[in-house]
Amino acid sequence: GLLTRLQTSAPTIRTLSTSRCHSQSIPSSLWKLGRLNHVAIAVPDLEKAQALYKDVLGARVSEAVALPEHGVYTVFVELGNTKLELLHPLGEKSPISSFLQKNKTGGMHHICIEVDDIKAAVTELKEKKIRVLSEEPKIGAHGKPVIFLHPKDCHGVLVELEQA
Does position 157 have pLDDT exceeding 90, yes or no? Predict the structure, then answer.
């Protein structure tokens, strides 16, 4: 009768859980991710690429610099908030040579993100099963330590970490 109708028509009141937010229970890292330093683009013709960014688009473009340890020539294109790094093979064993064999016209090769403590970052990322492509950081194009993370562990993107 009346009691049944009152029970079924009464509004349902929900209470919010007072449990702690998950992010509060995650320990903070010993290192911090910083800003995007550059996006690297592999190019089959370095002079043509330099001319595009300098003469056509009006950007400030550096001279080519050889980095034998990495097997590349690099050119930096200055943008307001970041840089583009144009990469061209240096030598037959260059990782850029194999990239360009698969991508004849070139394309995005990697992104570079700054970190405030590269050694702590590498240690923690290894613990989290993120593979690094070298045992120790190497000196990169900016004269600072860099290390690359395996693209299969980073959703298909080759990620370079650079000491800020």
Answer: yes
pTM equals 0.80
- In the block, residue with structure tokens 């993120």: 130
| pLDDT one-digit tens code per residue, 126-150 | 999 999 999 999 999 999 999 999 9
The candidate with the shortest Cα–Cα distance to 49, out of 77, 11, 13, 25, is 77
Domains of the chain, each with CATH number or no CATH: 33-163 (3.10.180.10)
Tokens of 45: 């013709």
The full 3-state SS of 35-79, as one line of letters, equals EEEEEEEECCCHHHHHHHHHHHCCCEECCCEEECCCCEEEEEEEC
- Per-residue b or e along 139-155, where b marks 16 or more CB atoms closer than 10 Å to that residue's CB: ebbbeebbbbbeeeebe
